[in-house]
């Protein structure tokens, strides 16, 4: 298992995440990718369901866990970002509510190490 930290671009955001107990977690195991943002978001994607993974050249201004219709962004900073295509869709939970994941975009501190682990 390997852990991949999510970046914290702003010290105030790090303090806010700590106060809200939104500890980010990204782990790659032999069988799955586990992503969590404290109590707000959690997903386990089987490695066999990861169809594609690539670095994303753009940045996002928003942070947190948000998405719609299977496309989810989970980030603690505006970048760097990685997009994961999931086929078949995996199940995740947002605020305890089940959601389907077809595409997951994450902020990852060391994109190259993360991509190497997933390939």
Describe, in plain words, how this protein is organized in 3D.
The structure is a single chain. The chain has 119 residues and is mostly beta strands. The chain has one domain. The chain is 14% helix and 51% strand. The protein is built from two helices and nine strands; from the N terminus they run βαββββββββα. Strands 1, 2, 3, 4, 5, 6, 7, 8 and 9 form a nine-stranded mixed β-sheet that branches. The longest helix is centred in the first third of the chain and has 9 residues. The model has no long low-confidence stretch (mean pLDDT 90).
Shape: globular
Strand proportion: over 45%
Instruction: Write down the domain tally.
Output: 1
- In helices, the fraction of residues equals 10-25%
Q: What radius of gyration results from the CA coordinates?
A: 13 Å
Provide a compact summary of the structure.
With about 120 residues, this protein is mainly beta. The protein contains 2 helices and 9 strands. A hairpin with a 2-residue loop joins strand 8 and strand 9.
What are the salient characteristics of this protein?
single chain, mainly beta, 9-stranded mixed beta sheet, 51% strand, globular
Secondary structure layout plus pairing:
Layout: E1 2-3, H1 11-19, E2 24-28, E3 32-37, E4 41-46, E5 50-56, E6 64-68, E7 71-75, E8 81-94, E9 97-107, H2 111-118
Parallel strand pairs: 7-9
Antiparallel strand pairs: 1-2, 2-3, 3-4, 4-8, 5-8, 6-7, 8-9
């Amino acid at each position: 298992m390997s852990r991949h930290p999510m970046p914290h671009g702003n010290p105030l955001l790090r303090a806010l995440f700590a106060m809200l107990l939104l500890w980010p977690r990204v782990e790659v195991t032999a069988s799955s990718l586990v992503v969590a943002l404290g109590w707000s978001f959690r997903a386990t994607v089987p490695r066999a369901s990861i169809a594609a993974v690539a670095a994303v050249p753009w940045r996002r201004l928003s942070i947190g866990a948000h998405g719609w219709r299977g496309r989810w962004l989970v980030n603690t900073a505006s970048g760097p970002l990685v997009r994961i295509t999931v086929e078949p869709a995996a199940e995740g939970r947002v605020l305890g509510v089940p959601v389907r994941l077809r595409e997951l975009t994450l902020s990852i501190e060391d994109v190259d190490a993360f991509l190497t682990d997933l390939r």
